[in-house]
Amino acid sequence: MSRNSLEKVLYDLSTSGANKKLFAADPDKFLGRYQLDVEEKTLVRDYRVRDLADRGVNTMLTWGFWLQAGKSNSDYMKIMKREEA
Hints:
Layout lengths: L2 H13 L1 H9 L1 H5 L6 H8 L3 H6 L4 H10 L4 H8 L5
Helix pairs in contact: 1-2, 1-6
InterPro entries: LigA_sf (IPR036622), Xdiol_dOase_LigA (IPR011986)
Protein name: Extradiol ring-cleavage dioxygenase LigAB LigA subunit domain-containing protein
């Protein structure tokens, strides 16, 4: 697994409206552009931000990724504290 590849994906999704649209339309196709294994693709596709952080992904990136998807800050905090939303 590559933390750098995961961080690149989250950065790209958090900074580009075009990438957000591509991801929303076909997550698997979008994620196919990156060197990710099946498990990593699942973590991104399913917004498993706690698992991403546990793998060393920068939490500012997981937070931005979560928020850009229209998810709530309070739910993010619950998940990160392992209180689950």
